[in-house]
Design brief:
Layout: E1 14-19, H1 29-36, H2 44-55, H3 63-80, E2 87-91, H4 98-107, E3 112-117, H5 124-141, E4 147-150, H6 158-173, H7 177-180, E5 184-190, H8 194-198, H9 206-226, E6 232-237, H10 252-261, E7 267-270, H11 279-295, E8 300-302, H12 310-328
Parallel strand pairs: 1-2, 1-3, 3-4, 5-6, 5-7, 7-8
């Protein structure tokens, strides 16, 4: 099963959507959380506290349903462009497990797969850890014959930034008219340990700098669309480490408290760090942060995640075809906005390191069986 010579996606004969995964029923929640925290020695009584967030939604995270929708939308986009390529889906922490997906791909005769990860930014948890999981899954599935290439980071791709501008404009329109013009934009992403943030990317500090760049681009896009500039900040949610370990701050709830005390008339919460509605969005933002704002009579509206916005779906296919052209011909156009430039195709040695344990990882300059590719 290989792409024919000259086909748009050649040399790839499959596309893999790789995501975090989430429980799909009450009985799944604790096993899922054990998977997420494997190797950290976190006792079940601490996991039970987090499990209650999921149980409040029937034990179902929205992420798997959103991934099914993304797979279907990408398949439709490929068909529209007459690109004959199967789309597979695998998760790190819940079914369909990544190793099982590789076993299916191996049985289907896949030789080389391009991987789209549902994490847009550089960090250990958003890049290197997925690459480690790819290596472990290939080994577990006996799929060493499959060449694995991870598509580049897309935080500054127009297909990610422009839907975010749309989402903020729509969220502003949902606020009370008298509060809209002076509303504050709170761009939110997942907090990580500060040492992980400092070591992110090939040169360090990529996680915060990339998020700040996107927030500034979206705020500028909103101003251009609406004629009104809005003050904004980058804030964080979902801290889960021990109190003594420094994590990125401020927390969204503390930020909302401070905005209310400062007399800000309204806030749009922008989950800029999330591609789709994870539980961090549904609970940490839509539930907990919304309650914080309501307690201070602060009008808040949450902007949508990219999900299956048409330009985002088109971006997934664009990244695939861009990488295919880079592998077989002259360097293609690599769309991006802002000052960072397009991200590398192949992660450099030492990029987003695992600071705890040395593990093998695929799709990097230090990975085995690297065939071709351009940084």
């Amino acid at each position: 099963m290989s792409a024919s010579a000259g086909a748009p996606a050649s040399p790839y004969d499959a596309l893999l959507i790789l995501s975090f995964g989430g429980p799909e029923g009450p009985e799944d929640v604790l096993p899922f959380l054990r998977n997420v925290t494997s190797g950290r020695g976190i006792p079940d009584d601490r996991l039970q506290a987090v499990a209650q967030h999921y149980q409040g939604f029937g034990g179902v995270s929205p992420i798997n349903a959103q991934n099914r929708a993304l797979v279907a939308a990408v398949e439709a986009e490929l068909a529209e462009r007459q690109v004959d390529l199967p789309v597979y889906w695998g998760n790190r922490n819940w079914a369909p497990y990544l190793a099982d997906t590789f076993a299916v791909m191996r049985a289907d005769g896949v030789r080389r797969v391009a991987v789209f990860v549902t994490a847009a930014y550089a960090s250990y948890s958003g890049c290197r850890q997925y690459r480690e999981d790819l290596a472990a899954a290939v080994e577990a599935a006996g799929a060493a014959s499959i060449q694995v290439d991870k598509l580049r980071h897309y935080f500054n791709h127009p297909g990610f930034v422009e839907p975010s501008v749309d989402a903020v404009v729509d969220a502003l329109a949902a606020l009370p008219e008298e509060a809209r013009r002076n509303a504050h934009l709170a761009f939110v992403t997942h907090s990580v340990p500060t040492e992980m943030a400092v070591s992110s990317g090939p040169d360090g500090d990529a996680y915060v700098r990339q998020h700040g760049e996107v927030a500034a681009l979206v705020a500028a896009g909103v101003a251009a669309r609406t004629g009104a500039e809005h003050a904004w900040d980058l804030v964080y949610c979902s801290r889960s480490g021990p109190p003594a370990q420094p994590w990125l701050e401020p927390d969204i709830n503390d930020h909302l408290e401070a905005l209310a005390a400062a007399g800000v008339p309204a806030v749009v919460v922008v989950p800029i760090g999330f591609v789709s509605d994870h539980m961090e969005v549904k609970y940490d933002l839509d539930t907990e942060a919304a309650q914080t704002a309501a307690a201070r009579d602060l009008p808040v509206h949450r902007a949508a995640t990219a999900g299956v916005a048409p330009r985002f779906v088109a971006m997934v296919v664009d990244l695939l075809l861009e990488r295919a052209r880079a592998e077989t011909g002259p360097q293609p156009e690599r769309p991006c906005v802002g000052s960072f430039g397009p991200s590398h195709d192949i992660c450099p040695v030492g990029c987003c390191p695992n600071l705890r344990t040395a593990k093998a990882a695929l799709a990097g300059a230090d990975s085995p069986r690297l065939v071709t590719g351009r940084s």
